[in-house]
Amino acid sequence: MAGRRNLETAVAETASVTEPGKAPLGRRERNKQEKLERIVGAARRLFHDRGFAETTTQQIAEEADIGTGTLFLYARSKEDLLVMVFRDEMIETARAAFSKPSKAALLDQLVDVFTSMLDYHARDAELARILLKEVMFPDAASKQADITELLEVIHSGLADMVTQACAAGRCDLKANPRRVAENLFANYYMDLLGWLGGRTSRAQFLSHLRQHLAITIGSPA
Amino acid sequence: MAGRRNLETAVAETASVTEPGKAPLGRRERNKQEKLERIVGAARRLFHDRGFAETTTQQIAEEADIGTGTLFLYARSKEDLLVMVFRDEMIETARAAFSKPSKAALLDQLVDVFTSMLDYHARDAELARILLKEVMFPDAASKQADITELLEVIHSGLADMVTQACAAGRCDLKANPRRVAENLFANYYMDLLGWLGGRTSRAQFLSHLRQHLAITIGSPA
DNA sequence: CTTCATTTATGACTATAGTCAGTTTATCTA
DNA sequence: TAGATAAACTGACTATAGTCATAAATGAAG
Question: What number does CATH give the domain B11-74?
């Protein structure tokens, strides 16, 4: 009973679309499902059009054609809504970034991967900053699931990349690949933060990122 | 005129105490000075006693014996107040952490330094998380000065440490010491985040940090 | 169809960060 | 000292995220 969650786990975390062999999905379930989609859709549109800070929860509720209270049965907070809108996209982006096999030098592969992710973030700097902030600083236990899955995709993708490069003789790292992956991502995250926060230019960001990654994998920049 | 700042630069950023050879410091200045001290003191007490979220700006104003509006002439936001309360302490902590000369292995020196900083943060996990969040994600230009100074102390301290260790033959790093320092701090930051966010235990945190730092400086863990 | 229990929906309401038009206080000048 | 100007102060006010007691909808059982 600890940490009450709304509407079960918010429609079982955007439940799958009519899983075969599963429950017949009565009117109730369909309603919830459809309502959640309306809400996330409305939030996506408004966040995109006006920005996060300029969108009120009232507006989202209105756009989704529900009461203001209902909104908070489907999302714990406005930030939660933001994560709902972008989580899957982010995971997909990360997966895609790791899916292209390559025989390039490890450093170049890494820069490629991070640049792909970057292109996604760069589409909207304000949202990206808020996402980086909210995703990495969950204050409710429920959000940890989100960040955990995303981090898992990124960390394991990077670890695999490192392991394979070493197996192919293209690098020589003794350390635990997982720790190397975490180290690499930490550097990407902080560099991105500096850029989005206006402390560095895009050119500086890219240059520094490459140097940071090179240091981690012990390769000449 | 862009980004209006209140009361000049909030009493010239907690101005020095009667700089010799400077202005005679009339009643007005003394009032401002004293009021700022009352405000920061009140905020410090309340944040410490009740926590950040549980303290209202009204309470701070009341404790400092000023009107609610006045508070926001001295601080732009509640978060700003938090930074005011802890910024100098954090910088001092960082300076102190770098001030003890040592002939130990670089990795051990680094772990020592970060452990010292950690002890400061660990005194209050909730405040630490909010600080990590607010300090690294300034949304107003004015706050960038804060983070810039703190980051400068940390980055240059680490860079010096690395440079000296290499000069003494205790390590062999070809890369720009500044970039190495940034890399090291990025790892500390993310590991600390994981710990404070409850994703890792303290033991894991320390173990992972050591491994991450070792990877960066290319030394066996 | 008619209870009845359970789930879901609602909007008036609360709490609080931050604003602003109007007031007070300090300083300067004559 | 009086008057004028500028700086600093104020609390009633606004805006909005999130709550909660109540109402409506749904589905199960008889």
Answer: 1.10.10.60
